[in-house]
Amino acid sequence: MAQAQPADPAAGGNDSRIDLNTATEEQLDALPGIGKVTAERIVQWRAQHGRFASVDQLGDVDGIGDTRVQRLRELVRV
């Protein structure tokens, strides 16, 4: 008999944040302050380094500083 798993709000269907590990360039480009070039850099970073372990790792992407990470924090997830 399968047991119900506890609800994880970050993984729930009501979470409208964009997942940095699965988002397309088009989805990332739609974020405020992220253009086509930065969206490409995010996808390239993911291809070179693997999955994002935290939103803070956006700061490792060329062209994304601490201020932009803070602005995006409520819009994205890992």
Compile the SSE list and pairings:
Layout: E1 18-19, H1 25-29, H2 36-49, H3 66-72, E2 76-77
Parallel strand pairs: 1-2
Explain this structure:
This protein has helices spanning 25-29, 36-49, 66-72, and strands at 18-19, 76-77. With 78 residues, it is mainly α. The protein has a two-stranded parallel sheet with strand order 1-2.
Strand content: 5-15%
Q: How many strands in all?
A: 2
- If strands are numbered along the chain, what order do they take across the biggest sheet? 1-2
Using the CA coordinates, give the radius of gyration: 14 Å
Average pLDDT reading: 87
Biggest sheet architecture: 2 strands, parallel
Q: Count up the helices.
A: 3
Brief descriptors of the model:
single chain, 78 residues, mainly alpha, two-stranded parallel sheet, 3 helices, 33% helix, 5% strand, globular, disordered N terminus
